Amino acid sequence: MIVSGEVIAEGKTKRIYAEEPTVLIESKDDITAGDGARRDQIEGKAALATQTTSNCFELLERNGIPTHYQGRLAGSDVVFRALRVDMVPIELVTRRLAYGSYLKRNPGVAEGARFEPPLFEMFAKDDENHDPYLDYSCDMVFRYHPKQPIDEPSLIDQQNIVQSPFGLRDHEISQLRDLSVATFEVIEAAWAEQDVTLVDMKIECGRTPNGFVVADVIDNDSWRIWPGGDSNQMVDKQLYRDGQPLDFVADKYAWVAEATNQFLQ
């Protein structure tokens, strides 16, 4: 099915169409890395992404976590309906284990160190600057290079929170942290039932008149997951970043989509 109507936003892996009072979110077969510098297509990825996202959002809704999800679009395996929200232009990352860019920002931390409770971080959605790490202090927002230690040499810029598109008040940061960690813990528990470790996960949120909700998508591009807790058994987007063959990556995405069906059993 091809969705008709006005495209109001398009990202690297999805399109968003206006359909008052909601929107339609259509996944694409694209897979990217390096802030879009590398791009390929995997046939069927859009359907797998929509399947995974729908299962995750339905799981969250069942556990009382507010989302924008309104259900799959009848007749399509690549589109779902969602509330129209005011998106927060920040990636919210929750980590159970120290891995990836966290180790570059914190070189004194051992790989695989466990965070209790989960660690929460925020990153500006800004491909040109590689999604800078965000820090807030004294009504200012500071943006740092995400793969360098957080100190003065890695500072990209700083702005008053009133002027910054990434400006948040303390109570808003607290609300987003609580929502992100709660989302992580629900999905972590669902994966644990299948002996899969959720290492870390990024989400995005939107504002509604009633507060923040989990928005955008949650698919196999959104997390690191290790069956059996073994990084050598990873089945997530890191495989593509590491240069694995596309057909191998496609098989893992299919495995993940099928496994998330168990979230709703």
Describe this structure in words.
The chain is an alpha+beta fold and 265 residues long. The chain has 2 domains: 7-84, Phosphorylase Kinase, domain 1, CATH 3.30.200; 87-245, ATP-grasp fold, B domain (D-amino Acid Aminotransferase, Chain A, domain 1). 25% of the residues lie in helices and 35% in strands. The protein is built from 5 helices and 16 strands. Strands 8, 9, 10, 14, 15 and 16 form a 6-stranded antiparallel β-sheet that branches. Strands 1-2-3-7-6 form a 5-stranded antiparallel β-sheet, with helices on one face. A hairpin with a 2-residue loop joins strand 14 (196-208) and strand 15 (211-215). The longest helix is centred in the last third of the chain and has 23 residues, at 170-192. The protein is globular, with a radius of gyration of 18 Å.
Secondary-structure blueprint:
Layout: E1 7-10, E2 14-19, E3 22-27, E4 30-33, E5 38-41, H1 45-62, E6 69-72, E7 79-83, E8 86-87, E9 90-97, H2 101-105, E10 114-124, E11 133-137, E12 140-144, E13 155-160, H3 170-192, E14 196-208, E15 211-215, E16 223-227, H4 238-241, H5 246-260
Helix pairs in contact: 1-5
